[in-house]
Design brief:
The chain has 233 residues and is of the alpha+beta class. Among the domains are: 52 residues, Double Stranded RNA Binding Domain, CATH 3.30.160.60; 52 residues, Classic Zinc Finger (Double Stranded RNA Binding Domain, 2-Layer Sandwich), CATH 3.30.160.60. Helix content is 43%, strand content 14%. The chain contains eight helices and 16 strands. It has a two-stranded antiparallel ribbon. Strand 9 and strand 10 form a beta hairpin. It is extended.
Amino acid sequence: MHIGECPYVCDVCSKAYRDKCSLINHKRKDSGELSYVCDVCNKAFSRQSNLIIHQRLHSGERPYICDVCNKAFSQKSGLIGHQRLHSGERPYICDVCNKAFSQQSNLITHQRLHSGERPYICDVCNKAFSQKISLIGHQRLHSGERPYICDVCNKAFNQLSNLITHQRLHSDEHPYVCDVCNKAFSDKSNLINHKRIHSGERPYVCDVCNKPFSQRSSLNSHQRTHSVEGARN
């Protein structure tokens, strides 16, 4: 992608592509295999049913409606996955830790925690992410975009989750409660850090002296003492 190399060449018209999948799709268009074409964006499909589903992106049509909460979906598979939230069904199970999920996409994302896979890479700083939505939020740090605005104080945020956490300052909502001492927090990360007081867990370890810490901020402060000592020496 960076060097512009296109090694996959069509043997009919010599048009070149950087990945094999694009070449295959091109050949299908030439052969007529992809005969159903969107009249809005010209994307082509091999089946009319796939074209109909795709066109809902443009029309906004959502014909599949949940009979419990009336939430609407453009695809039947989206409705089926959503209904599992009501039924509690979680058929997709991680083969490493047995954690269960209602949708296969959530299982795939979760399994990246075990494999360490981070397929979504920032084209500015090369930082990698396990989820596409995390990459999109990160890229706003480079662009300066802050589309999520508080309707109370107009403070803007680059991620919806940050706006939701911020709004709890206005509502004084503290939904995350410690199951040991009942102390409540406005965001989940603060609860996780707090629970380490009870568990004694210290996951952040100094790579210089191996001293462990319960919070990353404490580790960062500690590591500065090594930097100062190194400068003195």
